[in-house]
Specification:
By secondary structure, the protein is of the alpha/beta class. The protein has a domain at 3-148: Peroxisomal Thiolase, Chain A, domain 1 (3-Layer(aba) Sandwich), CATH 3.40.47. Helices cover 26% and strands 25% of the residues. The protein is built from 7 helices and 11 strands. It has a 5-stranded mixed beta sheet with strand order 1-5-4-2-3, with helices on both faces. It has a 4-stranded mixed beta sheet with strand order 6-11-10-9, with helices on both faces. Strand 10 (284-291) and strand 11 form a beta hairpin. Helix 1 (22-37) crosses helix 2 and helix 4 (199-217) packs across helix 5 (237-244).
Length: 311
């Protein structure tokens, strides 16, 4: 049994909305995903949330149960031995979407569940956070058990710790720390994210080498891929990776190149591939994400029982 992509959806805040909510955006994307698949929320047996920047910087408890409740996915605590929805968070930055897909696919392939969902959303946790450049966005992917002719064939991940310092997400203070009774200077401020100018290039370098090793291990080449879905985060990553792999025509262009995203970047790219028709025509699709670490995550999706060697 293989885990099959059943639907993808994205959600953006209403133009007049004063403050976006990460929970609301994830739930809205999840409900839109279910509507496209013709399913009910109660059918979701596992829900994994991989958003990073959350409402008011909430770290605990996990946000997935709040998203589950807002969607109405078996929100009530079930009696013993009855059906329910297992929901939890998986935090892996921009690679989180593919890591979560790998987890849900494992549940399906083991036969424990028939339907699972991955959601991601990011918002500015506190209005005006310095160093955090992203637009509020939610994304969701619904996976279901298939007949084996279509689904995920292989997952892979690598980390390159020598580039770890190029991207840091932590609260730091720029300027002299004020005494308790003295207000900070006008130019003093807290910074949430630091991204080195070499970060995007490092992500592309690591992703290119990982993709080539992954394909070589399966007796494949870049030309064997019909579609490459590269995450929209970090900005410029997908375009540069397409050029580096000499496969720019197989990387779907962003609907809005100016849109800045983070954990939902892979879901956004996959939605663009589906809406543009490229996904429907592809028998072999490679999903690629790169993020802090530098970490790289890959997922090979095949159709028509086309499962390469080593998958």
């Amino acid at each position: 049994m293989r885990a099959r992509l059943e639907a993808v959806a994205v959600a953006r805040p209403d133009p007049g909305e004063a403050r976006a909510s990460s929970v609301a955006l994830a739930a809205e994307a999840g409900l839109a995903c279910l509507a496209r698949a013709g399913r009910e929320p109660a059918e979701v047996e596992v829900l994994v949330n991989c958003g990073v920047y959350r409402d008011e910087n909430i770290g605990e408890p996990a946000m997935a149960p709040f998203i589950q409740r807002r969607m109405g996915a078996n929100a009530a605590f079930p009696p013993s031995r009855s059906a329910g929805t297992l929901s939890f968070d998986l935090c892996h930055s921009t690679c989180g979407f593919l890591s979560a897909l790998r987890v849900v696919a494992g549940f399906i392939e083991s036969g424990r569940i028939r339907c699972g969902m991955v959601v991601a959303s990011d918002v500015d946790p506190a209005a005006g956070s310095r160093g955090l450049a992203l637009d509020p966005l939610g994304a969701a992917v619904l996976l279901a058990a298939g007949d084996g002719r279509e689904g995920f064939a292989a997952f892979h991940a690598e980390t390159f710790p020598r580039y770890a310092a190029l991207y840091e997400s932590r609260l730091s203070w720029v300027g002299d720390l004020p005494a308790p009774a003295r207000p900070p200077n006008r130019d003093d401020h807290a910074v949430l994210v630091r991204q080195d100018e070499k970060y995007v290039t490092a992500c592309v370098d690591c992703a290119e080498s990982t993709v080539r090793r992954f394909l070589a291990a399966r007796g494949m080449e870049i030309e064997d891929l019909h579609l490459i879905v590269a995450s929209r985060s970090p900005a410029g990553f997908s375009d540069e990776l397409g050029r580096r792999l000499e496969a720019a025509e197989r990387v779907p262009p962003p609907s809005d190149p100016s849109e800045r995203v983070h954990a939902a970047g892979t879901g956004l790219a996959l939605a663009a591939a589906m809406e543009g028709g490229m996904y429907a025509r592809a028998s072999r699709t490679l999903l690629v994400a790169a993020g802090p670490g530098v970490s790289v995550a890959l997922a090979l999706y095949t159709k028509d029982a086309d499962r390469p060697r080593g998958g």
